User: Which sequence fits this backbone?
């Protein structure tokens, strides 16, 4: 029987790099390493139209990625060899794809319509999801129309979301992105950092009588969130003069209802979610309550529809025109085969200024892994460092390195054809700038072109742009709730595709635990009376001693003028 070598499964426990499809791609990468995008475009006038795909209103142009038709075919063959189809189906079937925690990762159920079924351990979770969404909507409507009142009878005008990581970044990003869809007379602020500056600055001009605090924590044990939640309780009690007022001003979002009860939040003020929802995949759950309060239930549901549209596209579209599959495979290509260490995400939309921070957690907490599902070290590069800033601002700070530095930095540009802020002369310039950057990165400017422009010979090398720097463009009509949901789902599933190729678990985050445990040990050492015995390395010990002296004002330094804050 003939067997396609690309489809021969690797021996049990063998790394992905032992797959024939992997070896073929690596050999191909060596062959095309010096191929320039100039040559690829010159050889194929239809490239710009063909290397593109569209779903849920988002158009992905990847023609300026350093790929040939053969690259794409080999990437798709690798996806098949890694059983991407089987892994997608397993995730949608609610199988425990989060292998190290023995859990499903069924965030797609959070945005399923009422008539869909998603099973976790034999139980259809969709009715549970909609029961919480309905409670959220009832609550959000009551707050928004003034029926829900604070302890003193005043309506709620401010919402403070206390949470960190996945319990902060998604809703914070979405509230910013959807500001044109939000109630402008309702302030929504986010407190995440255990640095007291965060809580103090977020609440300094708020009246507790008009403030609703949402404590968001999947585990309800996170140090930063619980510290801020206790501070919020003191702030409310002090401001309202009665500890009983707190119950009227605090609601919780959590999967740990025992802990919310211990904190003193009544069950009817808790919006639940489930352990099959990872924190960084939880934006569509009750974690998005602040978003729903800001934009209202209808817009929130439109955002979920956008998520669902991309989920369905991911589940059903052929891989060759599947946006998350293409995006994930291109990330693998750039990272593992072209050696790029980072991915810059540059939204040409000020409203998406928090998107890079959101994607940092989504991508880096998911794919910042160095062992396979089976626990073996991976012999190849995995998740890239994700970073970014909105355009055009980045052009005037770090783009120099993107154009002429020694590193390869693939970029994702994100833009919309219509702005919610149609000030004359702004939007077309914004988009022209994005298109110009992608073009300049790809094609550069040769020494001959620089000379032809009359540049003195001494400056030719300095003004030459090598080009061949890859980017993708995501273009949609406008940044509305539906499109935001689709965009986030695209990145979520792209991360899953990458993890599948790399054979790593994108749904755990053991790497965050060691620092937490050490902080618990160090915290009492900073304040213990006398000279506590310290058992750390000499650097940490010295820093702890110095901190203790500075904190007590015993460091012997002069008081500098202007060192005292105004308030
Ligand atoms: O420490 C990392 C982390 O566990 C993230 O994965 C998570 O999003 C964040 O902390 C907050 O966790 P929680 O929602 O349980 O407070």
Assistant:
């Amino acid at each position: 029987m003939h067997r396609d070598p690309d489809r021969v499964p690797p021996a049990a426990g063998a790394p992905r790099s032992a797959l024939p499809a992997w070896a073929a791609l690596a050999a191909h990468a060596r062959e095309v390493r010096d191929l320039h995008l100039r040559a690829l475009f010159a050889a194929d006038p239809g490239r710009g139209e063909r290397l593109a795909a569209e779903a849920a209103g988002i158009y992905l142009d990847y023609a300026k990625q350093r790929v040939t038709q053969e690259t794409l075919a080999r990437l798709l063959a690798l996806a098949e060899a890694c059983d991407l189809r089987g892994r997608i189906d397993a995730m949608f079937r609610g199988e425990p794809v989060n292998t190290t925690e023995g859990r499903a990762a069924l965030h797609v159920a959070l945005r399923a319509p009422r008539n869909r079924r998603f099973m976790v351990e034999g139980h259809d979770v969709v009715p549970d999801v909609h029961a919480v969404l309905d409670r959220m909507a009832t609550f959000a409507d009551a707050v928004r129309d003034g029926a829900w009142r604070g302890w003193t009878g005043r309506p709620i005008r401010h919402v403070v979301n206390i949470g960190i990581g996945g319990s902060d970044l998604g809703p914070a990003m979405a509230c910013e992105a959807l500001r044109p869809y939000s109630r402008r007379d309702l302030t929504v602020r986010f407190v995440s950092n255990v640095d007291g500056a965060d809580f103090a600055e977020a609440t300094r001009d708020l009246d507790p009588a008009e403030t609703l605090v949402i404590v968001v924590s999947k585990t309800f044990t996170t140090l930063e969130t619980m510290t801020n939640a206790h501070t919020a309780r003191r702030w409310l009690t002090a401001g309202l003069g009665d500890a009983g007022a707190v119950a009227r001003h605090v609601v919780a979002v959590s999967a740990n209802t025992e802990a919310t009860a211990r904190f003193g939040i009544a069950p009817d003020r808790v919006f639940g979610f489930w352990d099959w929802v990872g924190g960084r995949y939880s934006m569509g759950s009750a974690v998005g309550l602040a978003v729903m309060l800001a934009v209202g239930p209808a817009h929130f549901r439109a955002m979920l529809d956008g998520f669902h549209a991309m989920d369905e596209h991911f589940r059903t579209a052929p891989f060759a025109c599947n946006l998350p599959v293409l995006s994930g495979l291109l990330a693998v290509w750039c990272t593992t085969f072209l050696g790029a260490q980072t991915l810059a995400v540059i939204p040409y939309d000020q409203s998406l200024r928090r998107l890079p921070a959101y994607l940092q957690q989504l991508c880096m907490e998911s794919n910042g892994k160095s062992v396979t599902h089976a626990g073996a070290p991976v012999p190849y590069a995995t998740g890239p460092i994700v970073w970014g800033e909105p355009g055009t601002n980045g052009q005037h700070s770090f783009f120099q390195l993107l154009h002429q530095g020694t590193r390869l930095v693939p970029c994702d540009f994100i833009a919309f054809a219509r702005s919610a802020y149609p000030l004359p002369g702004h939007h077309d310039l914004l988009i022209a700038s994005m298109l110009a950057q992608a073009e300049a990165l790809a094609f550069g400017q040769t020494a001959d072109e620089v000379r032809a422009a009359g540049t003195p010979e001494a400056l030719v090398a300095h003004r030459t742009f090598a080009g061949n720097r890859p980017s993708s463009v995501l273009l949609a009509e406008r940044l509305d709730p539906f499109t935001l949901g689709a965009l986030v789902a695209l990145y979520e599933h792209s991360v899953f595709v990458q993890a599948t190729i790399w054979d790593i678990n994108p749904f755990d985050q053991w790497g965050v635990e060691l620092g937490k445990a050490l902080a618990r040990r160090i915290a009492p050492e900073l304040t213990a009376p006398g000279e506590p015995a310290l058992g750390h390395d000499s650097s940490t010990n010295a820093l702890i001693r110095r901190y203790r002296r500075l904190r007590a004002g015993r460091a012997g330094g002069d008081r500098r003028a202007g060192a005292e804050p105004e308030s």
Notes: The CA atoms of residues 58 and 487 lie 8 Å apart. The first helix runs from residue 20 to 32. The first strand starts at residue 52 and ends at 55. The chain has a mean pLDDT of 96.
